[in-house]
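Our preliminary data section would be incomplete without showing what the modeling component actually yields. Below, a chain of 169 amino acids is followed by its predicted structure, encoded as tokens that our downstream tools consume directly.
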Amino acid sequence: MKKYSYPYLFSVTILFLAFIFGGFMWHREVYRMTFLNRSTVRYMLMTVFIVALVTSCYVIKRGTIKSNKYVDYIRLFCAANISLLLVAILVLVTIAYCLPGEASSYTTNYTYAASSRSSCAGAEVNDVDLGSNIRICYPAGNVEFNNQIYVEKRSNAVGMVVTYAQTFP
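Predicted structure:
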């Protein structure tokens, strides 16, 4: 297929739209329900930093960047850090979502968290296993006026996945 033909244009357009749709669905169905452990996040950050440093040194030593300004080297390192961090988050959250784990449940108090442009409405819960506050998006029940929440989750070595949540008075 020639690169300037209509079938090629249609197939590339459909693949691009499928990629965008898949990204939105992954964010809605996987990312909002999955939470990583602190140790997993620490190891991810250290690994991304080291891989970005090694990659930047390799690219600079190879002579791909023709400039001798240090600002360009810093930009390369920052770009490598950001892109590798996005890939690492995508991979680790998907792994945490797909891995089987120990199912458990608990009941606790929560506070209502309103939605904003970048987050969903739901319940702000202090999770004991993670040691931090998590936001459970759109639990069943009356989220605004109840004060107790029942949470079912699946924990594994990478993190945890909230499988079900319901509020009650």
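The first strand starts at residue 34 and ends at 36. The radius of gyration is 21 Å. Preliminary results of this kind motivate Aim 1 of the renewal.
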